[in-house]
Specification:
Blueprint (H helix, E strand, L loop, with lengths): L1 E5 L1 H4 L7 E3 L4 H11 L2 H6 L10 E5 L2 E2 L15 E6 L5
Parallel strand pairs: 1-5
Antiparallel strand pairs: 1-2, 3-4, 3-5
Length: about 90
């Protein structure tokens, strides 16, 4: 099962612990996380189900390619990292 990790910056706003989930694609893995923590969905995905512009997701250190349909494959032992971009000056 893949493990999904969320940036600590996101934890300032909500409870976002790491989760070990089933899923053959990024979309399936995230859906499994959101099933248990539905409030996270709005921070990660837009109303069309695509990654929000300010969110970056990496699978085993590689930036995901399909930000709209979330079809990047996920393996059993993969590590998925969800980062929320920070800005400021």
């Amino acid at each position: 099962m893949a493990t999904v990790h969320f940036t600590r910056a996101l934890e300032r706003f909500l409870d976002a612990p790491s989760a070990t989930v089933e899923g053959a694609t990024l979309g399936e893995a995230l859906a499994a996380v959101f099933a248990g923590r539905p409030v996270l969905r709005g921070y990660v995905l837009d109303d069309q189900g695509a990654l929000r512009r300010h969110v970056a997701v990496f699978i085993n250190g590689s930036l995901v390619r399909d930000r709209e349909r979330l079809t990047d494959p996920v393996g059993r032992d993969d590590e998925i990292h969800v980062f929320q971009a920070l800005s400021g000056g």
